[in-house]
């Protein structure tokens, strides 16, 4: 495998990570109130990315392709989780409209602990197994039939670390004090909009799982 092919996989993975989706929406939502929470969510997401990347590179993705019923089940369960998250986010937005935060610290405190946010980020990423199919289509044409162990590990770590740095950069930019101050008043609508996105994405995932079953 050439270094140009290696770099192409990492670059295309970054493009996929930057595409609008539940992960990006979640990190953006947290970053408008707290950098710590946004980075915690990004860390949870990247643990999920590390899991899916490992499955793909080490060939386990073929199992999901060979047994579509398993993939369908994961899609349905994951979609239900996204809908649940969406409802919670909408409720949070409605509550913020009734009782606006007093300041930035109060807005961050209402997000809960960073541990809880980390688990939310992890669960959000794991709820969408389609990332395996995306990575399989991305990696398979460029990866040797029997890659050495060091190459597989290097590829997994490179894809995970590069996308993690992208999310940390996004979290840092959005959570700057100037931007947070401007978005503080829009917090309720950001929650409601994020929640609506999660509900739609979750329903689409459930429907895709049911159709594939």
From TrEMBL:
Keywords: Cell membrane, Membrane, Transmembrane, Transmembrane helix. Pfam families: LysE. The keyword Membrane applies. It is found in: Cell membrane. It comes from the Bacteria. One of its GO terms (molecular function) is amino acid transmembrane transporter activity. The chain crosses the membrane at residues 6-27, 39-64, 70-90, 126-143, 149-174, 186-210. GO terms for cellular component: plasma membrane. It is a multi-pass membrane protein. The keyword Nuclease does not apply. This is Arginine exporter. It comes from Corynebacterium minutissimum.
């Amino acid at each position: 495998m050439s270094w140009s092919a290696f770099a192409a996989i990492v670059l295309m993975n970054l493009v996929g990570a930057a595409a609008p989706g539940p992960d990006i929406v979640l990190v953006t939502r947290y970053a408008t109130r707290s950098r710590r929470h946004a980075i915690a969510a990004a860390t949870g997401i990247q643990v999920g990315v590390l899991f899916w990347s490992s499955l793909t590179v080490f060939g386990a993705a073929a199992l999901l392709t060979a047994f579509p019923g398993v993939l369908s089940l994961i899609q349905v369960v994951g979609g239900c989780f996204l809908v649940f998250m969406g409802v919670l986010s909408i409720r949070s937005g409605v509550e913020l409209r009734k009782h606006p935060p007093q300041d930035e610290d109060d807005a961050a405190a209402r997000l809960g602990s960073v541990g809880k946010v980390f688990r939310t980020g992890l669960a959000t990423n794991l709820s969408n197994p389609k990332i395996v199919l995306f990575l399989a289509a991305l990696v398979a044409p460029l990866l040797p039939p029997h890659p050495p162990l060091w190459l597989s590990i290097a590829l997994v770590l490179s894809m995970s670390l590069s996308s993690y740095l992208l999310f940390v950069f996004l979290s840092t930019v959005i959570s700057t004090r100037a931007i947070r101050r401007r978005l503080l008043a829009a917090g309720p609508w950001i929650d409601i909009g994020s929640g609506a996105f999660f509900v739609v994405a979750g329903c689409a995932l459930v429907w895709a799982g049911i159709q594939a079953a």
